[in-house]
Amino acid sequence: MISVNNVTLSYGKRVLFDEVSLSFTKGNCYGVIGANGAGKSTFLKILSGEIEPNKGTVTISPGERMAVLKQNQFEFDEVTVLNTVLMGHSKLWEISRERELIYAKEDFTEEDGMRAGELEHEFGEMGGYESESNAGALLSDLGVAEKFHNSLMKDIPGNLKVRVLLAQALFGSPDILLLDEPTNGLDIETISWLENFLADYQNIVLVVSHDRHFLDTVCTHVADVDRQKIKIFTGNYTFWYESSQLMARQMSDKNKKTEDKRQALIDFIARFSANASKSRQATARKKALEKLTIEEIEPSNRKYPGIIFQPQREVGNQILNVHKLSKSVDGRVLFSDISFTVNKGDKIAFYSKDPLAVTNFFDIINKEEKADSGKFEWGTTVTTAYLPIENADFFKGDMNLMEWLRQWVPDWVTDADEPFIRGFLGKMLFSGDDILKKTKVLSGGEKVRCMISRMMLQAPNCIILDQPTNHLDLESIQSFNEQCVDYKGIVLLSSHDHTFMETVANRVIEITPSGAIDRLTSFDEYILDERIHQLRDEMYGVMA
Fold first, then answer.
1. pLDDT value at 117 more than 80
2. What is the pTM of this model?
3. Is the separation of the CB atoms in 446 and 458 below 8 Å?
4. Fold for domain 320-542?
5. Residue ranges of the domains in the chain?
């Protein structure tokens, strides 16, 4: 168990935590959620001892081992990949090094022999003889090929380093596991493996993540960081979100009888308790939800942005025709012979093993890049709004938010006065003097919110989204997701957010080096279809 007692942390006048007390127990996975800047990552650093609170204590049960997902990709540059993982179990690693030093001695003494015997016993008790094979298997499961296992960390691709550090944290089944954004840099297959691994994990896990599907799959509880406090709620992220929204509606409905409200909440808990069977942690979560009382449900204090796309006109029958598009970069084929037609009512999830392929494809159909060959044609009724993965070019100069958004006002808008502009910024939670903030000092999340304001202003009937959840907090992601579900226009979408892809898309197009795989299906059905797996292997194999 790990306990937090009266922990307080402040930086100057800014108070992050005020006398926080709570406990985390074995067998549970806690999703740590909160707005950007609320202190989620800082809280994990307090638990790990990296940051010392101004007041209060963190207590870990005697003999328990904690592992933390490291964030510094250069820390182990001069260490081999396999040894980097083994170093995750520091005590086992120290014993292993001491053994090697003793056996390397030329003047091996009787005392050395006694010590070696002690170390061999301890090494065996801790599973040391299987440690290298276990570490290798873990690396392979996380997509780090065996050919890299004996390479130095500095010599492997950057996208593999995060996987090695994740393997290091997972190695040896630590009693307490702290993971800050563990899905960053992982593809959907590897995230799925990690979900299954953590869903079966028997010890304590605390995880910070913006991936709602991941949180829903692995978490038994939510630790909500809000207003300088942390409260623990039973259930996964979706249960927390829907229950808090329900409670907020109940509190605002003054005319509804108390007993009716109570029964609605009881029914809600029962429904989620039954649905828990879909999780690999079904038994634990179901029991926890069945014990939950309605008094434990509280409305959220969060502010959710008002993302609303209102097309100026309905899209016609001719939307987008793509014919034999191909693109290579530095001799590397991203895609070739891509052909398809977008139809009315389509919300398409674009997917690829190579994220650069989707980004280049989106840039091409938005006329920001040129294809090597092939063509595309938009229908005359289509008005698009594009959210690119990179937005730095949009924020050059020294404008404030009001001036910045005004430059994107469409020609058909006749009166773009201050209240008009302020309304679009206000929907994205820029209020009061925020509109005078200079664009050059905006955070990554604020820039994305500005870009969404720009998209809403354009009143498109087709939106194109390349990794729309990047830099956004869970509240913005949730609102963005819900609007894309309700949106009456066309959606072309690529995202690492599994829930976004699954809930929005009714069609999946996978872009490969040798063509497109196009299916009228949900995203979950697509990635679970074994026939598609075989086809994908063939299509990627053609260009291998």
1. yes
2. 0.84
3. no
4. Rossmann fold (3.40.50)
5. 66-174, 239-296, 320-542
